[in-house]
Amino acid sequence: MKTRNVEFIMAPRQPHYVGDGFRVHNFIPGSTRTTMQRMNPFIMLDYNSKFHFEPTETPRGVGVHPHRGFETVTVVYKGKVEHHDSHGGGGIIGEGDVQWMTAASGVLHKEFHEKEWSKKGGDFQVAQIWVNLPAKDKMSTPKYQTLLQKDMQKVSLQNENGYVEVIAGNYEGTQGNASTFTPIHLYNVRLKKGASLPLQFPENYNTALLVIEGSIIINDTEQVPTNYFALMENKGESFSIKADEDALVLVLSGEPINEPIAAHGPFVMNTREELLQAFDDFNRGKFGYLEE
Ligand code: MN
């Protein structure tokens, strides 16, 4: 097994607001080295690093907007997210929960801090990943997978050194609960200070890490602090992460979808024509209706 090295480490960029509730650092496709093509099937990564929101009677968030052609995966570390969509679906994503929404042919939805949580305020920490769909599935029926913390598949490490929480894909034979359209591994890895974890993924899988808490050292050489992102090379398969303080790390690895990308705002399709069609369908109300 050849070693996979770090391609580059990215500091969190200046945060920007999505609506008034998501104060995010963009990592994908935020730099010339993390374009949609390079990171495919992970075509967007926004991270609301831990941030304290003051109490409010009017929940903060982002109002009605469409998506087509991909999936949105929302990983909640702190706080609560409430969502509603044009298919009549909705729910609350709490701490440790993950919502895997397949927008596919199109949904309208809105995402806000949960009402009661908003009244108290508190620390809020959420990652949202957009997962591309292959052309044959871009116009499939929308669906939701609610992955609750209590049902997460976890692999405990020896000597109480932490665990690998498998959201999607598998780790050493333990399969995550999310179903995916293309091969993807998505983990939350918790490591005690001094513990290390070997990881391996097929060489061609686009692979990256986001340090949610603490600090890690990759391959005993590259330090990645809190809120930093590391992109791994597509040479070699195996690498190690070691916690130099108690750490929580989001690990992404996926088989690239080798198809053209035509993206604009909330639509990610294969051709310009499909993109124009998406805007046209949205303007004609074909994504349904959702009250503001
Ligand atoms: Mn959205």
Annotation, overall tally of beta strands = 24
SS class: mainly beta
Q: How far apart are the first and last residues' alpha carbons, in Å?
A: 53 Å
Order of helices and strands: EEEHEEEEEEEHEEEEEEEEEEEEEEH
Instruction: Characterize the biggest β-sheet.
Output: 9 strands, antiparallel
Number of helices: 3
User: How confident is the prediction overall: mean pLDDT?
Assistant: 96
Query: Globular, elongated, flat, extended or rod-shaped: what is the shape?
Result: globular
- Specify Rg, calculated over alpha carbons: 19 Å
Walk me through the structure.
The protein has 292 residues and is mainly beta. 8% of the residues lie in helices and 52% in strands. It contains 3 helices and 24 strands. Strands 1, 13, 14, 17, 18, 19, 20, 21 and 22 form a 9-stranded antiparallel sheet that branches. It starts with 5 loop residues before the first strand and ends in a 9-residue tail after the last helix. The model has no long low-confidence stretch (mean pLDDT 96). The protein binds manganese (II) ion. Residues 65, 67, 72, 109, 111 line the site of manganese (II) ion (MN). The site of manganese (II) ion has 5 residues, from strand 5 and strand 10.
Observed structural traits:
292 residues, mainly beta, nine-stranded antiparallel β-sheet, seven-stranded antiparallel β-sheet, 3 helices
